Amino acid sequence: MRHTRWYLVQSGWRQLRRYRLRSTLVISCAALGVAGAITAVNYASGGQQQVLEQIRRLGTNIVVVSAKQSRAIAGRERTGAIVTTLVESDYRALRNELLGPVRASARVSAPLRLKAGFLSKVAPVVGVEADYFPMKSWPVVAGRFFDGEDIRRSTRVVLLGYAAARDLYGDALPVGERLFINRVPFEIIGVLAERGPGLDNTNEDGQVFVPLTAVMRRLLNIDYYDAILFEIPDVAEMAQAERGIVDLMRTRHRISRFRPDDFQVQSQRELIDAQLASSEQLGFLVRWIGFSALFVAGLGILAIAWIAVRDRTREIGTRRALGATAPDIFFQFVFEAAVLASIGVALGLGIGWWASRVTAAQAGLDLVFDVFNAVLAVTIALVLNLLFASWPALRAARLDPIRALQHE
């Protein structure tokens, strides 16, 4: 029996070399199915990782109290006027009466002209406090952050976003250089790490950050804030904190229930939930399409194997006439399909890794190679290919030898 099986294995190898085009088509089907599934899954995983990284940078537990645009002044409709009632006393009250010693930062911003050497551009200048950057999980690539002493003294120091530094100074890291903001000289003390676009499509890399008091006193001459950011330690308490902020602010601003608020309270929760939901739906769709490629590849192998059985009918009849049994014929066809499928799956694994790198680079994503899904794709491909190949092999084993010999 062992000798017969060995003979069938040798015969199967000869058939594979003889029908090279057919063998190449089977290998290609198996390889493309596995490569497509792996590439699709890795692409979806890379996209989800990017969304999670953006969420981490955005801050999952930050509540923003911002001034609201006024839409009615003196009884006439008007847009674009910023309410100026968000002041330091509100800031202190929210911390002392409601939220306690949490990390927080007030914020003001305005587009101002920057001048570095012979280069000049208008960019958003943002005044924040020292806690702003830890809240955003935002590191520097060079230099340092400004601290509480810089805030207290209104020090003329500046942190450049990555894109702003590149636009003004090219590839150099301009720590220690002088930058003029509205003709006021500031010293560059650091360059922030590149973040890319956020979930809210804000390009923070193009912004310039200055101590809050320096912006308010030296550049804009204002005594109100655009927004105040609070970090809530427990995410489960976000909704309660938002309700408490709204109640306290309405009381402080003497807003009755018949008047609209002159402020708005927002958290990142709804934006994050929406982004995660859409990312998961897209990931499911891409994975479903990827693994559907395995089924389509299996159908291709089924069609090729079925044609092979029809073309080799006289050969099957001759082998049966010379003493080969139905299990021998079945084993030979399954062996040929298993060898080709295994080669194709191994080739598809390599192609999938290469294609994942290419698609990640083209899409601007980090390369993510999901080992578990790759192993799953390989396993499913092998099982499907063997199942689809077994059907034509079973048909070959059941052929009547006499009719097979008479086949034209």
Task: Write structural notes for this entry.
- The protein is α+β, with helices and mostly antiparallel strands.
- Helices cover 57% and strands 19% of the residues.
- The strands form 2 sheets. A 6-stranded mixed β-barrel has the order 4-5-10-7-9-8. It has a two-stranded antiparallel sheet with strand order 2-3.
- Strand 8 (178-181) and strand 9 form a beta hairpin.
- The relative contact order is 0.19.
What attributes does this structure have?
408 residues, alpha+beta, two-stranded antiparallel ribbon, 13 helices, 12 strands
Q: How would you summarize this macromolecular structure in one to three sentences?
A:
With 408 residues, the chain is an alpha+beta fold. It has helices spanning 2-18, 20-58, 88-99, 132-135, 148-153, 162-169, 212-220, 238-252, 269-311, 313-321, 326-363, 371-397, 401-405, and strands at 62-67, 69-73, 76-82, 104-116, 119-128, 140-143, 157-160, 178-181, 184-192, 208-211, 227-231, 263-267.
